[in-house]
Amino acid sequence: MDKAVVDRIVDGDKVVLLVGEEEKEMILSLSQLPEDVKEGSWVRVVFNNEEVITIELDNDETNSRKQRIKSKMELLKQRSKKNR
């Protein structure tokens, strides 16, 4: 099972996933993903060669990454205020 992030949704029907630590780009049909997936969502994907077998939303990973980004943004804002 691999982890992937939804990098972007193109034309409302294609999804660009960045898969694994090497962030291999894969383009899938939006209909292959769970309904509540959006840009920035993390998913767990099972492949058989290059074919997708299952995809499930990874809410824990999505929330963890969002919190990490939020914390970093807060640090940058604090540094910006100190440098004025």
Account of the 3D structure:
The structure is a single chain. This protein is α+β, with helices and mostly antiparallel strands and 84 residues long. The chain has a single domain, classed as Nucleic acid-binding proteins (OB fold (Dihydrolipoamide Acetyltransferase, E2P), Beta Barrel), CATH 2.40.50.140. It is 29% helix and 42% strand. The chain has one helix at residues 59-82; strands spanning 2-10, 14-19, 24-29, 42-48, 51-57. Strands 3-2-1-4-5 form a 5-stranded antiparallel beta sheet. A hairpin with a 2-residue loop joins β4 and β5. The longest helix is centred in the C-terminal third of the chain and has 24 residues, at 59-82. The chain is elongated. The N and C termini lie far apart (47 Å).
In CATH's first tier, which class applies? Answer: Mainly Beta
- The average pLDDT score comes to 92
Named CATH topology: OB fold (Dihydrolipoamide Acetyltransferase, E2P)
For the biggest β-sheet, the strand order reads 3-2-1-4-5
Strand content: 35-45%
CATH superfamily: Nucleic acid-binding proteins
Secondary-structure-derived class: alpha+beta
Number of strands: 5
Number of helices: 1
Please state the second-level CATH architecture.
Beta Barrel
Number of domains: 1
Residue stretches low in confidence (pLDDT < 50, at least 5 long) are none
Rg over C-alpha atoms, rounded to the nearest angstrom? 16 Å
Give the N-to-C terminal Cα separation: 47 Å
> What's the shape?
elongated
Largest sheet: 5 strands, antiparallel
In N-to-C order, the SSE pattern is EEEEEH
Q: Give helix % range.
A: 25-40%
